[in-house]
Amino acid sequence: MKSSFTVLAFVFLASLAAGGQTVQPALPAPAAPAQAPMQVAPALPGQSDVPAPTTIPGAIVRASEEAAALPDAVKILTAFQPSDVKFDVDDLMDLLRDKRHEGWVLAAYPDPKTAQPLIGAGFSLDLPERIHLQHDGLNPHPFLEPSSADLWQAAGLEPARLDTILAQFHDRLDAWNKKGFRKQIWSLEPQITEADANALLRIGIIQAAYNAKAYCRNFDRLSASQQMAMTQLVYQMGVNLEQFSTFLGLINRDSVGADGTAAARADAKYWHEVQLSLVQSQWARLYRDRARNVIAMLDPNYVVNPAGAEHSVGRVLPARSRHAHRSTLRKASYSSKRHGATARKRAARTRKD
């Protein structure tokens, strides 16, 4: 009886212990904090959501548009390469700055005969674009006669500056007349820099070389000095070279033998005839010094003895006319070297064939 009571008591206590235990529910995981919505800046007026193009393609497009807008003459002149001629353009620039040739003035001044505005080494400031027909049916090379404005642009100068210089020139010409204007040349303030004048001279030479190929169908086969002579003639005479029919007929005569000998090494008699056609011209009588230099360069042996070639030409040139008008100008501070030394220096720098 006692043992049964003990068992019942034990069971009763166990049930109480079991009933006192409760299962704790699992706590929920803490919720992640809510993220603030992304703030998008409003588009500014005129902006779109299309990505802006890169600057390089835009620059290419602008450059292409500017190039397309250039006159054809400017494109041709700016495409010139030194290898297009055999002589050094810098040598011819030095020669044309010489007091015996075009001169060097950094302000617009009137031509002694026509009163047209010139600057630098005789660069014309107001020429219009001209049509120059090719009359030689055997020469496919065309002439190029752009306006002064196109040449100015090809030289890399601002068009607005040309307008200003021309306006000032005409004001002075009206006030002083041609004779009075020329008396004031060396007191004028420069309107262009030395670099500007060099750029204009260079582009003028490039145009002259281009047209020399139109005048002379054998230009590419001439020697360096002969090419320089032809280019000088074109630079100095321009379209007036058309009047030298005897010279042009001789210079375009087929003087290349069957063995392919260059025209520059043709017989001496032929080149003597070419030289004489210029010696007997009015141009040679009026501009004796520059004519002597140009005609001597046509000698196929000029590079061997430049001074001797010029001396030989000088002996047959007609005497200078007492009334010949000196159309060349020189810079007051310019100091020329001895002519023979200049010729030797120029020949040393001239590239041989």
UniProtKB/TrEMBL annotation:
GO molecular function, one term: lysozyme activity
Residue spans of biased composition, Basic residues class: 336-353
Signal peptide: 1-20
Region (Disordered): 321-353
UniProt record, GO biological process: defense response to bacterium; killing of cells of another organism
Keywords: Antimicrobial, Bacteriolytic enzyme, Signal
Name of the featured protein: Uncharacterized protein
Species of origin: Occallatibacter riparius
Lineage: Bacteria, Pseudomonadati, Acidobacteriota, Terriglobia, Terriglobales
